[in-house]
Amino acid sequence: MMSDNILDDNYFMAEALKEASLAADKDEVPVGAVIVCDNIIIAKAHNQTETLQDVTAHAEILAYTSASEYLGAKYLTQCTMYVTLEPCAMCAGAIFWSQLGRLVYGAGDTKRGFTVSNENILPPSVKITKGVMQNECEILLKEFFLNKRK
């Protein structure tokens, strides 16, 4: 008998980690994001700033575009974004403008995360969950940057 998959925060963050691994394979900073609506992944993305030679090609931005296209709408009020690293101020601004319903992130970013620059950039309507699979997200990032320094 097969067990049922429980689609919870850990399940969806694991999917975002798969995207982050794809970024690392392309020598991109390993950040991955998925957007979920009604328990269905409607968008997946990973950093592509080097690949596209575009400083705005963060996982979150690419995921918003894909999710908006999927839904045929610019607002993501009923959606949750899972991202392996705390969004930067630019990506948090996009969360604000897309009216995302919920943000879940793994690793905090003490240098460039939105909470460092302006914790209040997101309206109170955006529910935030931090630290989901934090260790796994941090390990992927630390290994990537350690290999860069070799």
Give your account of this protein's structure.
This protein has 150 residues and is an alpha/beta fold. It is built from five helices and five strands, in the order αββαβαβαβα. The chain has helices at 9-25, 59-71, 89-98, 114-118, 134-149; strands at residues 32-37, 40-46, 79-85, 102-107, 127-130. It has a five-stranded mixed β-sheet. α4 (114-118) links the parallel β4 and β5 (127-130). α1 (9-25) runs parallel beside α5 (134-149). It starts with 8 loop residues before the first helix and ends with a helix. The model has no long low-confidence stretch (mean pLDDT 93).
Main sheet record: 5 strands, mixed
* Class derived from helix and strand content: alpha/beta
Distance separating the two termini: 47 Å
Sequence of strands across the biggest β-sheet: 2-1-3-4-5
Q: Percent of residues in beta strands?
A: 15-25%
**Contiguous uncertain segments of 5+ residues:** none
Topology as H/E string? HEEHEHEHEH
So how many helices? 5
User: What is the number of strand segments?
Assistant: 5
Backbone CA Rg: 15 Å
Helix content percent band:
40-55%
Summed over residues and divided by their number, the pLDDT gives a mean of 93
Q: What characteristic shape results from the CA principal axes?
A: globular
